[in-house]
Design brief:
The structure holds 2 protein chains of 2 kinds. Chain A is α+β, with helices and mostly antiparallel strands. Chain A has a single domain, classed as Orthogonal Bundle (Arc Repressor Mutant, subunit A), CATH 1.10.10. Chain A contains 4 helices and 3 strands, in the order αβααββα. In chain A, a hairpin with a 5-residue loop joins strand 2 (62-68) and strand 3 (74-80). In chain A, helix 1 (5-20) crosses helix 3 and helix 2 (27-37) crosses helix 3 (46-58). Chain A is globular and about 55 Å long. Chain B contains 28 helices and 23 strands. Chain B folds into 5 domains: 13-89, no CATH class; 100-140 and 346-371 and 395-495, no CATH class; 151-333, no CATH class; 498-530 and 752-886, no CATH class; 552-734, no CATH class. Chain B is of the alpha+beta class. The longest helix of chain B has 41 residues, at 59-99. In chain B, strands 12, 13, 14, 15, 16, 17, 18, 19, 20, 21, 22 and 23 form a 12-stranded mixed beta sheet that branches. The two termini of chain B are 46 Å apart. Chain A binds chain B through residues 26-28, 31, 45-48, 50-51, 54-55, 57-58, 64-66, 69, 71, 73-76, 81-82, 85-86, and chain B through 1-3, 13, 22, 25-27, 29-30, 32-34, 36, 55-59, 61-62, 65-66, 69-70, 72-73, 76.
Chain lengths: 114, 886
């Protein structure tokens, strides 16, 4: 396990919430979407994704329901709750601010060197 | 997203299917879908499977982890669900109750009375009967008495020699110890009388009480001539010595002579038979106490050995007593020992009283519950439309019952809260209604009050009561069928009528029980108070005068001091007559044995005996006790003159066949003969209403006492008189003190026999009145309700020509059956229950027919009025209105 697991876990939670922000999905779809959207940059075991999903459900940020998948199998669908949506909005804000700050510092540093 | 509450879900998926199988399903779906996708992309099935598994990670670890998360969530969810639904029920209940304030108020008051009364009596019952005594292993402690085999109720204290032999010879006790009561004069010039007690050196060791400061007594401190030592009770240590920790070792003046304080007793120490004792000293009678086996003055307590039963101890002590009777036939023939658990000894007399009160207050609670059940039933019928709507919307029966029960519990818990306030007030007035003398005997009473235990008790009572009065109506109400309600045009059906009737019958019979009980106590009291007293207590003031026996040790100086005090009091304005007595009427006296001159001497242990008292001044004249023959004491009966005696009528009846005993004479031991010079009327001794024992009066001038009570007839103001007496006593006998100044008639009204009837009369009376009011409310409510329910039927009858009179008659006839049934059942129940109070009544049988007839008549009349009023009101309504009122 990498040493920055905590950060990774929190980040993963936010990514999962984001995945669900367009509507209910099952775990498989969440996993594929994260892999595909990040062009394979974010490599994560499926197991970690499921743990994230179940923890989010425990925290009341997502709700689950059984339904039928596109290939006609019984699948568990996850859906954002109001609280989950609030959390996603907050985390997105924090991430953006953080990333902007980091980005700004990195930019300034490169300007001084040249 | 908004904060709108989401529709509540009744079931969680996870609580239906097992958590593990859900996790398995979810993972299986994931893997299958992934494998399909890989196969579709061209992998071989085996490659696809291994890729999918690799991508997933540790399968069994995942399975465990996910299941544990889900299980935690399910548990928390269930609790949350439950709390949420409870909160919902409570909110709904509060709203429902607020919608009907009159209903809520009535039930609340009813329950507050029922539960509050219960809590008040329980707090007293706990303090007196249940709370452990403040001693080590109190259940092993017993009280020992001497009894005289052939006589009923002949128990007496032990003699000191007997106690010493008991102590050395028994095999049943860890140890025995003795004590007796007394008072002390504390201080020097303005001496105060302090109640106290004296004990053998090991008394506190036997009780297992350790001193708070210093020590208790040690071996040898009760020997004749030992240095004087004293123990202070916590109370007096605080009040007179300001809680000074340096008090140990200090010398205080007790009865005019110094004594050393060796210790302070703990705060919770109270020995109930001497509950007011503030100072304890070792017994300090003269050397003769070791010789006089016939002098019975020592109360004995003992601690049973581990494993020794009461029966075994009794057998053992009886054997010891048989040995003593053989060795000392003169004093011990026919004597046996009696062993009583200490708790019984301390509270034995009030136990039945408290249990009766507890029973009575339980009956009040039952009536209250019946009333509330009735109100709920009626309300349930009113709410049928609301219930029907909820059923139609899918509420389950269990859910409805729970909702209705929550409302009941809300009511009962609110009632209990209000009740606790009532209880606190109640206990205060309850204990303050008890005369000081009785309170001193039951010190635990003062600890009664609303504490955590009582709160918990009330909560339990409230919940049980809430279920009791709520369950039946809830089930009945929840049985509402939608069709029925709709068919009845939403006016509800008369469901529960039979249950309502049964509750009314029950209320009437319970109320009858309490009313009969109160009446029986009331008639006992009035008979007791109308007793021929044999003297006139009105306008008589009494006051005890205690001389310090250290300064008035010789007879003559004490007699002279009392004579000076008597003369000075006699000269006070408003005083017409003054007398002195060693024991007032209603005080228990000591008894003395003798032989009658001219008859063969009695066998040992079978001497005639009489209660005796020393008197002085014009005692008989002051109390208006008639001299029936011969004379009262007068100036002739001085110390140097031959001793003479005056006896009462009971004495003449017992020992002279009712003939005039004047001219006869008594023989005391080997002393001179004492002629009987007068015969006087009977005066109660001990308890009012008890058989008056043979009584013997001796002139103070020919006897010796350091405590005498003044009896003063006159119309002087009691308070001024008391002050005047105190002044006179200080002047005439420095160092002496005045105790218990009180008018004679107050002593009678506070005496234990009057109190033991007046107290239950007061309380049972209050309970009965409460039950009666509740029953009236209940009957009135039920009848007005059923009349309202039947307004259409009545309208039709009136339209068909029935007169209002007929309708009222019809309703009252129907209700009359309920009243009759209630009275009938009540009479039978009272006949059974009243046997429990036989011993508490005086001069009246527990089945006294007049009481039953009168109470039944009154109760029936009241019930009928409670029915006629609503019936008449209903019959006056215009039929066209009720018929149209769809």
């Amino acid at each position: 396990m990498p040493p920055n697991l905590d950060l990774l876990q929190g980040t993963l939670d936010t990514l999962v919430l984001k995945t669900l922000s367009w509507g209910p999905r099952h775990g498989y779809a969440v996993a594929r979407w994260i892999k595909d959207t990040s062009d394979g940059t974010i490599l994560v075991e499926d197991r970690a994704l499921y743990v994230a999903l179940h923890r989010l459900e425990e925290r009341g940020w997502v709700e689950s329901q059984w339904g039928l998948s596109e290939n006609n199998r019984k699948a568990k669908y996850y859906e954002l709750t109001a609280a989950g949506r609030r959390n996603l909005r907050q985390k997105t804000g924090e991430w953006t601010a953080y990333a902007n700050a980091v980005f700004k510092i990195l930019q300034t540093a490169s300007g001084e060197v040249t | 997203m908004s904060n709108e509450p989401k529709p509540r879900r009744f079931f969680h998926i996870s609580s239906v299917r097992s958590v593990e199988s859900e996790v398995d399903d979810e993972m299986r779906f994931h893997l299958q879908t992934r494998i399909d996708a890989l196969v579709l992309a061209g992998s071989s099935r085996a490659d696809a499977e291994s890729t999918a598994l690799r991508e997933f990670g540790d399968l069994s670890a995942a399975r465990k982890q996910l299941a544990s998360i889900d299980r935690r969530r399910a548990r928390r969810g269930a609790l949350h669900e439950w709390l949420a639904s409870l909160a919902q029920d409570v909110r709904f209940g509060v709203r429902a109750l607020r919608a009907r304030p009159a209903f809520a108020f009535t039930t609340l008051i009813t329950l507050a009375l029922g539960i509050g009364g219960n809590a008040a009596i329980y707090s007293v019952v706990y303090a007196v009967l249940l709370k452990p005594l403040p001693f080590t292993q109190p259940e092993r402690l017993v009280h020992l008495w001497e009894v005289y085999e052939s006589k009923v109720d002949s128990r007496s204290e032990a003699s000191y020699p007997d106690y010493l032999d008991w102590r050395s010879r028994n095999r049943a006790f860890v140890d025995l110890a003795g004590y007796h009561g007394g008072g002390y004069l504390l201080g020097t010039d303005r001496a105060a009388v302090v109640p106290g007690a004296k004990s053998t050196w090991n008394f506190f060791d036997v009780l297992g009480v350790r001193a708070l400061l210093g020590r208790t007594f040690v071996r040898g401190e009760d020997d004749v001539g030992a240095p004087r030592v004293a123990l202070l009770a916590y109370g007096i240590w605080q009040s007179q010595f300001a809680g000074d920790r340096g008090v140990v070792g200090r010398r205080i003046m007790l009865d005019g002579a110094p004594a050393t304080v060796v210790g302070v007793l703990p705060k919770d120490f109270q020995f109930a038979r001497r509950g007011d004792a503030q100072i304890w000293t070792p017994i300090d009678r003269g050397a003769s106490m070791r010789q006089r086996r016939g002098a019975h003055w020592l109360n004995v307590v003992g601690r049973l050995r581990d494993g020794a039963t009461l029966v075994a101890a009794s057998t053992n002590m009886s054997a010891v007593m048989r040995d003593l009777a053989r060795e000392f036939p003169e004093s011990n023939t026919g004597r046996d020992a009696q062993i009583v658990p200490l708790r019984d000894e301390l509270v034995g007399s009030v136990r039945p009283l408290l249990l009766v009160l507890y029973g009575a207050v339980a009956v009040v609670l039952l009536v209250a519950c019946a009333n509330v059940a009735n109100l709920l039933l009626m309300r349930g019928t009113d709410r049928q439309r609301e219930i029907a709507v909820r059923v139609a919307l899918g509420a389950g029966r269990g859910r409805l019952v729970r909702q209705l029960l929550t409302e009941s519990l809300l009511l009962s818990i609110a009632g209990a809260t209000l009740g606790l306030v009532l209880a606190q007030v109640g206990v205060r007035s309850l204990t303050s209604a008890i005369p000081d003398a009785a309170r001193a005997r039951i010190p635990a009473l003062s600890t009664a009050g609303v504490d955590l235990r009582v709160v918990v008790y009330s909560a339990v009572v409230a919940i049980v009561a809430g279920l009791a009065f709520g369950l039946a109506p809830a089930i009945r109400t929840s049985r509402t069928s939608v069709q029925d309600v709709l068919r009845n045009g939403g006016r509800g059906s008369t469901t529960g009528a039979s249950l309502r009737d049964a509750l009314v019958v029950g209320e009437i019979s319970l109320t009858l029980m309490l009313l009969c009980g109160a009446t029986l106590f009331g008639r006992s009291l009035s008979r007791l108070l109308s007793l021929e007293l044999g003297f006139r207590p009105q306008h008589v003031m009494t006051a005890g005068v205690l001389l310090p026996n250290t300064t008035y040790g010789d007879k003559a100086s004490a007699i002279m001091a009392f004579a000076r005090i008597e003369a000075a009091v006699r000269s006070l304005p408003g005083v017409s007559d003054v007398g002195l007595t060693s024991k007032l009427p209603l005080d228990f006296g000591n008894s003395v044995g003798f032989d009658i001159a001219g008859r063969p001497p009695s066998r040992p242990g079978e001497y005639p005996s009489a209660s005796y008292r020393d008197i002085a001044g014009s005692y008989f004249k002051t109390l208006d006790i008639p001299v029936l023959s011969g004379r009262a004491f007068d100036a002739r009966d001085v110390a140097t003159a031959p001793q003479v005696a005056v006896v009462n009528r009971a004495f003449a009846t017992a020992y002279f066949d009712g003939k005039d005993p004047v001219g006869g004479a008594l023989l005391f031991g080997d002393k001179d003969t004492v002629p009987i010079v007068g015969l006087v009327g009977d005066v109660p001794i001990g308890n009012l209403g008890d058989k008056i024992p043979p009584t013997l009066y001796i002139s103070l001038a020919q006897s010796s006492e350091t405590f005498m009570s003044l009896v003063i007839r006159g119309d002087a103001d009691a308070r001024q008189l008391t002050r005047a007496i105190e002044r006179i006593v200080t002047e005439q006998a420095p160092g002496a003190a005045v105790v218990n100044a009180a008018p004679m008639d107050r002593l009678i009204s506070q005496s234990s026999s009057v109190f033991l009837r007046r107290f239950p009369l007061l309380l049972v009376g209050v309970f009965a009145a409460t039950a009666l009011v509740l029953a009236i409310v209940g009957i009135y409510g039920v009848v007005s309700y059923s009349v309202a329910q039947r307004s259409r039927e009545m309208g039709i009858r009136m339209a068909l020509g029935a007169q209002p009179r007929n309708l009222v008659g019809m309703i009252v006839r129907e209700g009359g059956w309920l009243a009759a049934a209630g009275v009938g059942i009540g009479i039978v129940a009272t006949l059974i229950a009243s046997r429990l109070i036989t011993n508490m009544l005086y001069g009246i049988a527990p089945s006294d027919p007049a009481t039953y007839i009168a109470v039944s008549a009154v109760l029936t009349a009241v019930a009928l009025v409670a029915m006629v009023v609503p019936a008449r009101r209903a019959s006056r309504v215009d039929p066209s209105v009720t018929l149209r009122g769809e």
